[in-house]
Amino acid sequence: MSQTLIERLKRDYSAFTRAEKNIANYMLAHHERLPFDTAASIAEAAGVSQMTVSRFLRTIGFPDAGAFKAAIRAELDAGQLMVSDRIDRIRRVGDENQRIAENFELETRALLSAYEQRATPQWREAVEAIAAAERVGVSGFQTIRGIASDFASRLSYLRPDVYFADGADGTFAEIIGPGSGRACIVLFEMRRYTRLSLLLARAAARRNLPLVVICDTHCHWAWDFTDIVFPVQTESVLFWDTQTPFVSLCGLLLDDVIAQLGDRVSSRVDELRTLQDEFEAFEG
After folding, report:
1. 3-78 has which CATH code?
2. Which end of the chain is more exposed for a tag (fewer CB within 10 A), N or C?
3. What pLDDT does residue 90 have?
4. What value does the mean pLDDT of the chain take?
5. What is the domain partition of the chain in residue ranges?
6. What is the distance between the terminal CA atoms of the chain, rounded to a whole angstrom?
7. Helix count (H) and strand count (E) of the chain?
8. Bridge partners for 216 per DSSP
């Protein structure tokens, strides 16, 4: 969210009614989620009616929730840094300790954004879908591929029929093809987004398959295909956006999947340990 809206909320805050202040407080505290929110979700979080939210949006200059979200998305997109901007920023002369301290604060906020996802209504839905599916397909491309692959690898220790799908064969048949069974798709994505992510999300939605998207706060298109979206903050003063919240969220999600699967996890781990011993996978 740009400073424009933040400044507007702060400037007019004293003139707001109590209900309007509740909405403004939510927007200021959770500005990174606003592109994904609806009038109903804002109303629930702020403890007001949906009609009150609609009136408030008109008060601050937006005819409806759609116009509000479009404006916020446009402001966010306009603020994205190009590679050349990042290099210039790093080359700038200044206090290096201050730069690293600023990045530490950003990464702390990013970590908090991952933990906040566990309190969302979609979290339980994701856990149940991953645990109950006949098979789970995990995908991630380019710079997020490694984290997606690691998530698939660790999940495969907890339950059978987990596949890391990269679409190299041009089909994703192992997770959405004929005879592949009822699948749950877990998709990792962060900017710049790949066309394959969009196509896979669209294919999952067409087949009415559970789709979990773990992404950055700029990935607005994810909500076009599923309600189970976990946006985390990735802003950084370093050259690359931080991937720390993705790793933390994966750990939390896997932990709750273990709780959901119960005794089945113990049986699965015992079976794999027997195979590891047979093939002497580990020293000692």
Report:
1. 1.10.10.10
2. C
3. 54
4. 85
5. 3-78, 116-278
6. 52
7. 13, 5
8. 232
Positions of the chain with pLDDT under 70? 1-3, 32, 75-96, 179-181, 284
Q: 163: part of which helix (H) or strand (E)? A: strand 162-164
The CATH T-level fold of domain 116-278 is Rossmann fold (3.40.50)
Asked if omega into 109 is within 30° of 0 (cis), the reply is no
Fold match, 3-78 / 116-278: no
CA–CA separation, 84 vs 154, rounded Å? 36
What was the pLDDT predicted at 163? 94
Task: Check the CA dihedral 7-12-13-18 and report its sign.
Answer: negative
DSSP labels, 59-98: HTT-SSHHHHHHHHHHHHHHTPPPHHHHHHHHHS-S-HHH
Q: Where are the alpha helices (DSSP H) in 133-172?
A: 145-158
